[in-house]
Structure prediction request, 355 residues.
Amino acid sequence: MNRQTLLQILDLARWAPSGDNTQPWRFEIIDDAHIAIHGHDTRKHVIYDFDGHASQMAHGALLETLRLAATRFGLKAVWNIRGGCPDDAPIYDVMLQAAEIQEDPLVRFIEKRCVQRRPMRTIPLSATEKEALATSVGNSYTLQYLESFTDRLAVARLLWDNAHLRLTCPEAFRVHRDVIEWNARFSNDRIPDQALGVDPLTARIMKWVMHSWERVTFFNRYMGGTIAPRVQMDFVPALRCASHILIRPEKTPASLQDYVLSGIALQQFWLTATSLGLQLQPEMTPLIFRWYVRAGRPISQLATINDAAVELAGKFEQLAGAGNNTPYAFFCRVGNSPQPRSRSLRKDTENLMTT
Ligand SMILES: Cc1cc2nc3c(=O)[nH]c(=O)nc-3n(C[C@H](O)[C@H](O)[C@H](O)COP(=O)(O)O)c2cc1C
Prediction:
């Protein structure tokens, strides 16, 4: 073990997914057997990061990717959450030790795994694929499939309503404006517009409209501004996939550690899907809005948005056959499709280092 090996492990680990590609982590090499991951979250300015949970799940995905990456070098990585740190700035101590272990078969898929936001084929998942996916999340999580045409249509309707909420919410607008890199096929620190799943004309109009909230409200009110993005980014992709899948934890997550564990499950699940040749898109916003609603907290200053969120949470629960308190950790769609041409990349490892 030396510093060079640890840098190679971090170089692979940074390919873990994070909400809007925020990469809420910085790395510190303490010695040849000890890496500290300094986590942060974006709850103060990103409405999707409800209580930091999306960032905490990303931390889990990072820790799991690091653990897998270490196996390439015959190393076992074990982490724990450092005591005394606030939940919005957790530090994870990762200890590495030489072990008689083979490279994990998922390591090959760490860099290949990426979001597919465009329509996929509707070929149903096979029993073998379902079994591999169920195994990937471990015993503390179960999978719920929404795969028939009727179910996919119901999800498409839900996402249609959900997207209306997102696109008419001023607090969400500020997030969208900051996370899209325009005229880009790749982006190191955001989402390139070409990976959003809209056609080039719609992307150009979105870029112009998203210049200001005044333009957004005018365009939405008088020109049906939400229709083209909702058709292309929500309704059609929701129909065109093999299945929507909910990952359901056995127990309601209640602590930082619980969300980190959900992140581990999601990354195992996503890498396994990639290893099966499947593409995946997270569909987290209905779950996140429901977290607000069931906690009795407002999403927006606008009452119309908060009312719409309550209605949406009810529709989601009806669709999933769930009660008000049924916990869900992850929602996504999967299916076969070519590898996306456009994707998010990552900040360079050296820019992710801290002392
Ligand atoms: C907790 C979490 C929530 C996410 N939610 C969404 C989502 O609702 N919709 C979406 O298209 N992508 C979502 N993503 C995917 C990220 O945008 C994506 O991982 C990031 O931009 C990096 O891109 P890559 O995964 O293609 O490398 C989510 C990722 C994580 C980890």
